[in-house]
UniProtKB/TrEMBL annotation:
Annotated protein name in UniProt: Putative acyl-CoA dehydrogenase
Cofactor(s), names only, from the UniProt record: FAD
Start and end residues of each Acyl-CoA oxidase/dehydrogenase middle domain: 178-270
A GO MF term: acyl-CoA dehydrogenase activity
Domain Adaptive response protein AidB N-terminal as annotated: residue spans: 9-162
Chaperone in keyword set: no
Coiled coil segments of this chain: none
Superkingdom assignment: Bacteria
Length: 543
């Protein structure tokens, strides 16, 4: 071989490490009551960091699902074919309880443990976690109709992945999807035109077109349709109790920017049968219980993407030389890497804290439920909004190598905008925060009770909390100012968690930049004097 083909100064693959060797995550999980899950986190983290699992993620994205509407004879089949490793990834997720298992796990911290495992496994391949998240979120909505929950909840919570087109009651485990939006309304679901007519046996006949259906090969779906009493929520199985296929026809799969391993479809309900969940006319309040849980997963997903990105960036800089120096030793790169790490840790702390609130709310803690309502709305907006910028900067740390598909960074970058759009894009999330404050003023008290636990620990944070309170008391043009307000709320929550529980260097850098007025627009604009060394160490892994 010619000496011109000698390979030097290239970065070794980031494989063979434990993704759960993350001190911020482990401490947060312990603090929120799920320390008992540490062994399983390391087991899953080791698999997530393996070359094998990383290859599974690559293959399911390079070979996206394909729609088969009819068989060779012209019979309607409405099936989606996946790469075999899609099912491998799904099986791991279900066996580890990343879906609905926490709803039937009575251990304290079950939702925190599930959130942490989701955070780890999302760093392998986030697309397949869409049906996993839907299944997790379906349970609280189904509980509005106890007789349906009694039948389906044990199947949803089963830790057996049983893929196939069969009557749900005959399966060892089932997965759930969700159909809410329609082409004329999008997030304005009250404008939906799909209709539901009551039948004598208690079922409903549903007719309409859904513009975006998550996970169309799931076993059951929660959907919205109009009855004589208004917009209502329904459960639709893909296979009816008599073994026949429900009249739910897949029109096409969406050609998406990212999330390409996962199928998202337009569905036609041509006289499909469904069963009412909750009361007629109460569709939005019923399905919002599902939406709130998927919004938690949006925050977890954004935090997971940030962690994956910054770990890759730090790994690259550790092994790459440029301009005569190790890249990680150059001051400007250290500023960038430290800033990316600060953002990642702030997101992770908030996501796990909100998962802890979900645990306590499920146990009947009204204060935690009120905090979760507002904290989740604000965090969903901000953490998810930061994800794409974070992914772009992490990619840029690898230079041209990061722009090449083989690095994995383009896939991370394409995936990043999804969670900001899913379950309400930026404006919807910001307006939902305002709505929560107006309709549930106790949530405001609970939010400030949480952030004020850090009172006196950092003068910059204290001033930010005082300024936020003043801004919230001014209702002039509040909708126009909504994004700025919600952004501040989310950062104040992150700052309070970092000051109380984070690495001191990270907390200082966060407060100095986000609240100290000495911060630029791009990542890598931390003020002088921050301890970049202590910060960057937190994103270095042994591989």
């Amino acid at each position: 071989m010619s000496h011109t083909h000698e390979v030097t100064n290239q970065v070794p693959p980031l494989t063979g490490h434990d993704v759960a060797a993350d001190t911020t995550l482990q401490a947060a999980v312990e603090r929120e009551g799920a320390g008992w899950a540490s062994g399983e986190l390391h087991e899953l983290g080791t698999l997530a960091g393996s070359a094998q699992a990383q290859d599974w993620g690559r293959l399911v994205n390079e070979n996206p699902p394909a729609l088969r509407t009819h068989d060779r004879y012209g019979h309607r089949i409405d099936e989606v074919e996946f790469h075999p490793h899609w099912h491998t990834l799904m099986d791991v997720a279900v066996r580890h309880g990343l879906h609905a298992a926490p709803w039937q796990d009575e251990r304290q911290g079950a939702h925190v443990a599930r959130a942490a495992k989701t955070y780890l496994w999302m760093q392998v391949e986030p697309g397949h976690l869409c049906p996993i998240s839907m299944t997790y979120a379906a349970v609280p909505a189904l509980r509005h109709t106890p007789e349906l929950a009694e039948v389906y909840e044990p199947l949803l919570a089963s830790q057996e992945y049983d893929y196939g087109l069969r009557v749900p009651a005959t399966k060892r485990g089932v997965l759930a999807g969700m159909s809410m939006t329609e082409k004329q309304g999008g997030s304005d679901v009250r404008s939906n035109s799909t209709s539901a007519t009551a039948n004598a046996d208690g079922s409903y006949t549903i007719t309409g077109h859904k513009w975006f259906t998550s996970a169309p090969m799931s076993d059951v779906f929660l959907t919205l349709a109009q009855t004589a009493n208004g917009l209502s929520c329904f459960l639709l199985p893909r296979v009816l109790p008599d073994g026949s296929r429900n009249r739910m026809h897949l029109q096409r799969l969406k050609d998406k920017l990212g999330n390409r391993s996962n199928a998202s479809a337009e569905i036609e309900y041509d006289g499909a049968l469904g069963w009412l969940v909750g009361a007629e006319g109460r569709g939005v309040p019923t399905i919002i219980d599902m939406v709130n849980m998927t919004r938690l997963d949006c925050a977890i997903g954004a935090a997971a993407g940030m962690r994956a990105g910054v770990v890759q960036a730090v790994h690259h800089a550790t092994h790459r030389a440029a301009f005569g120096d190790s890249l990680i030793d150059t001051p400007l790169m250290r500023n960038v890497l430290a800033d990316l790490t600060v953002e990642s840790e702030a997101a992770a702390l908030a996501a796990i804290r909100l998962a802890g609130a979900a645990d306590r709310a499920a146990a009947g803690d009204e204060q935690e439920a009120a905090f979760r309502r507002l904290g989740l709305a604000a965090s969903k907006y901000w953490i998810c909004k930061r994800g794409p910028a974070h992914a772009a900067e992490a990619l840029e740390c690898l230079g041209g190598n990061g722009y090449v598909e083989e690095s994995g960074m383009p896939r991370l970058y394409r995936e990043a905008p999804l969670v900001s759009i899913w379950e309400g894009s930026g404006n919807v999330a910001a307006l939902d925060t305002l709505r929560a404050m107006a309709k549930q003023p106790e949530s405001v008290d609970a939010f400030f009770a949480e952030v004020n636990k850090a009172a006196g620990a950092d003068a910059r944070l204290d001033e930010a909390i005082r300024a936020l309170g003043k801004e919230l008391s001014n209702h002039d043009d509040i909708q126009f100012r909504a994004r700025r307000l919600v952004e501040t709320m989310a950062m104040v929550l992150q700052g309070s968690l970092l000051v109380r529980h984070g690495e001191p260097a990270v907390a200082d850098a966060f407060c100095a930049s986000r609240f100290g007025g000495d911060w630029g627009v791009a990542f890598g604009t931390l003020p002088s004097g921050v301890d970049t060394g202590s910060i960057i160490e937190r994103a270095q892994v042994a591989a």
